[in-house]
C-alpha cells in the first residue's frame, strides 16, 4: 500500500482514491488501538497508518494536513516512550515522525521549526547509537539525521561542516564494514560532496577540493563496477564532483 499513490498516478481522482484507502486503513487501526491502548503492536500499527496517510497527503501537496497526521503519530510515540524508555523500536519511530514533521516544516518555509525537529531527532539517534554502538542500522539512521541538520544549516548560511564531518565518519565506517555495498558507497560519496561544497563556501578551498575529489573517486569506482545501467543519481553525483 505504500506505493499506492504512485501506482494510481498523480491525477486528482487517483489521489482522492488513495486517500480513501488510507482513511479506511486508518479507521481500522484506530479501532484496534482503542480496544488495546496499552498494546505496543496496536499502537505502532496505528502510528504507521498515520505516517502513511501523512505521506499520501504530502504527495498531494496537502502539507498542513500531512503535518497534522505526523504530529499525532509523534504525540503517541512520545507518550509510549515515557512508559518504555528503553524500547528501541518506539524511539526510532519517534525520530521518524520528528524528521517527517521537519520535512513538512521545511517545505512550508518554516526553516527554524524544521531545524528544531531535525536536531531533536538527531539527538535521539545519537543517544541510541551511544547505547547500541554495534547496531549498524541505528548508525545509518544517525548519519541521515546529521545530513538533514547539516543540509538545512548550509541552506541558511550556517556552519554545517561539523555535522557533515560527523556523518562522513559514520558513513566511512559503515562502508568499511561492507566495502562492496553500493548504497553505503553512494551515501559516503554524497556526504563527501556536500562536505566539500560546505568547505568551499567557508573559503576552505584546498580541503573542499580534496573532499570532492575523494567523492568523485568513489563514484568512478561505483559506476565502473556496476553490472548494468547505472542509476541517474549516480551519474549526477559523478558529474557534480568532477573538478575543472
Reconstruct the topology from this structure:
Layout: H1 4-8, H2 12-35, H3 40-59, H4 63-83, H5 88-107, H6 111-131, H7 136-155, H8 161-177, H9 182-201, H10 205-224, H11 232-240
Structure write-up:
The protein has helices at residues 4-8, 12-35, 40-59, 63-83, 88-107, 111-131, 136-155, 161-177, 182-201, 205-224, 232-240. The chain is globular. The protein has eleven helices and no strands. The protein has two domains: 1-132, Serine Threonine Protein Phosphatase 5, Tetratricopeptide repeat (Alpha Horseshoe), CATH 1.25.40.10; 164-244, no CATH class. It is an all-alpha fold and 244 residues long. Helix 2 packs antiparallel against helix 3 and helix 7 runs antiparallel to helix 8.
Compact summary:
The chain has 244 residues and is mostly helical. The chain contains 11 helices and no strands.
**Share in β-strands:** under 5%
Q: Percent helix among the residues?
A: over 70%
Q: What overall form do the CA principal axes indicate?
A: globular
The separation of the N and C termini measures: 45 Å
- Uncertain regions: pLDDT < 50 for 5+ in a row? 1-12
Domain unit count? 2
The SS-based structural class is mainly alpha
Largest sheet: none
Number of helices: 11
- CATH top level of the largest domain is Mainly Alpha
Please, what is the average pLDDT? 92
* CATH fourth-tier homologous superfamily of the largest domain: Tetratricopeptide repeat domain
Pattern of helices and strands: HHHHHHHHHHH
Fill in the CATH topology of the largest domain. Serine Threonine Protein Phosphatase 5, Tetratricopeptide repeat
Rg computed from alpha carbons, rounded to a whole number of angstroms? 20 Å
CATH architecture of the largest domain: Alpha Horseshoe
The total strand number stands at 0
